[in-house]
């Protein structure tokens, strides 16, 4: 049996979001990182407040309460869903539809940590994650959130290689950039969105649907300098060294009289 930890979500704009779920082990490491950081911060505050006597004690208790409950909220809302611990391990919190987490969802998932902590050491939260197909603790289930791996930019994957075809009309730089961007971002759209975008330039590609997408990719490949394998190579630039001549085949021996 294969365990699939990728969840696909389609936005209203037709963009496919592939969410890679983070399991309990890596989330535990991220939590430990944050716990150490919070402990160090609270220790520094305690040293500073010690010189203020009873007033300092009161301020220290307020700071401990604020850091314990609102440290993750501040980072999740202002830092793209990632506390320092989550960022260190490439994680982030998002809504279960793949959209960035908001203030209300972050408050709800973090204020419910007291329920996840029961009966001790996040026992309820761990059981919830193990039973949930999306590794959601109780706070995630209530807030409708997921903890996922932060994906890198897909642009580095390049344009899919298809037989290149020259554009039927000259394209200016802006139009060339748009065609190449279509090829770079192809994998971020679902099939219907690809066909819709290719249909906008039907006069250019001369086709619709899947055929239009393929022809537009062919033009993108041509603009990137790719050429059909059977096309004659371009002549070398002026001043470039000429390719060495192929050695001539040895003459056949004369036949005996």
Strand arrangement, major sheet: 1-2
Contiguous low-pLDDT stretches (5 residues minimum) are 233-257
Integer average pLDDT: 81
Classify the beta-strand content into a percent band. Answer: 5-15%
| Global geometry | elongated
SS-based class:
mainly alpha
Number of helices: 11
First and last CA, distance: 78 Å
Helix content: 40-55%
Number of domains: 2
Secondary-structure element string: EEHHHEHHHHEHHHH
Radius of gyration: 30 Å
Keywords:
257 residues; mainly alpha; 2 domains; two-stranded antiparallel sheet; 11 helices; 4 strands; 8% strand; disordered C terminus
How is the secondary structure organized here?
Elements: E1 6-10, E2 16-20, H1 24-49, H2 53-78, H3 84-88, E3 91-95, H4 103-111, H5 113-117, H6 123-131, H7 138-143, E4 145-149, H8 173-184, H9 191-200, H10 202-205, H11 209-223
Antiparallel strand pairs: 1-2, 3-4
